[in-house]
Write a structure and sequence with these properties.
With 151 residues, this protein is α+β, with helices and mostly antiparallel strands. It has one domain. Strands 1, 2, 3, 4, 5, 6, 7 and 8 form an eight-stranded antiparallel beta sheet that branches. The chain is globular and about 50 Å long.
């Protein structure tokens, strides 16, 4: 009888170990952020004036969290301006970048994201100028929390 109990105890321990390994593998594959549905709150300040908080939901797929750089870096789509990435730093827990555009409208856009398994925060700053005159400044802070699996 003891032999069966020991066998059951070992089976239970093995099942727990396998479950722990699978969970660890899922978290490691996420590179610092798990896939899923995220509730996002954006708090913008535009030209020194706080704008209303914007709330939204976003599904981050396994592919999106596997490439945090592509998911959270800006894509330059400018007309009459040339853009250059002047700063870029990526780890599993953090992404920091800066994009500077020059031309008809000069823009300096900087972002920093901090990833923590089921949560991320970010700060995005933008300054636009024309002919040496600042036309627009904004700063957006973002807080996102995983609320479950994607639908």
């Amino acid at each position: 009888m003891e032999r069966d109990v020991t066998g059951l105890r070992l089976s239970g321990l093995m099942a727990c170990a396998v479950a722990a390994l699978l969970l660890a593998a899922q978290r490691a594959d996420a590179d610092g952020l798990l896939a899923g549905l995220y509730r996002i709150e954006q708090s913008p300040i535009v030209d020194g004036i706080a704008a209303p908080v914007q709330r939204s939901m976003r599904c981050l797929t396994a592919e999106a969290v596997a490439d945090l750089d592509k998911t959270f870096s800006p894509v330059s789509r400018t007309t009459n301006s040339a853009c250059e990435r002047t700063e870029h730093d990526l780890t599993a827990q953090r992404l920091k970048w800066r994009l500077q555009c020059t031309g008809q409208l000069n823009m300096d856009i900087a972002g920093e994201f901090v990833f923590d398994t089921e949560r991320y925060t970010a700060t995005l700053s933008t300054e636009a100028s024309m002919a040496g005159q600042v036309m627009h400044r904004s700063r957006v802070t973002i807080e996102a929390q995983r609320v479950g699996d994607c639908p």
